Amino acid sequence: MQIIGYAVVGDDDFIADAEGNMPDVLKNDVEWAFFQAGLDAADVIVLGRLSHEVTPNPAGRRRLVMTRSVEKLYRRGDTVMWNPEGASLGAALAEFDCHVECVAITGGRDVFDYFLTGENRFSIFHLSRICGATVPDGTGVFGAVEAHGLAATAILSAAGYCQQPVKILDPGVELLSWTPAMS
Description:
alpha/beta; Dihydrofolate Reductase, subunit A; ten-stranded mixed sheet; two-stranded antiparallel sheet; 6 helices; 12 strands; globular
């Protein structure tokens, strides 16, 4: 199964502002189209509860919502609420009425941290960077961005990922894709 992460950051590696919202400075039409194409290709989208609550789902995509507000799993329509401390990823994905070959991980920070290491780690992590943008007092893409002042690239490298060649999505927008190092 492919586990593909998607995040857009500024130069400070923040994904959200102090209120937890995606600021306009991180929005780019070409990057958005890349992101949406990835979501369209996925069987299930994994995101945190807060992201789920503030992000509409007009495309009707299947959502797996990581949350501590349920003991294990709770299904409502195309959405499954999932507490990874109470149920495995496999059990959560089995709640959907489809064969799951690809999941797209869209954050937030705690969700990205969960898939960074362990048996359910990213197959690839797409880190889009809006060059020159910063998000004062924001939320880091990974917990160690804020907790230890580490760069996202250093965190990915330390977790055993290798950066692929940088792609330019649009002037001032870089795509840094990371894959697990071969053992």
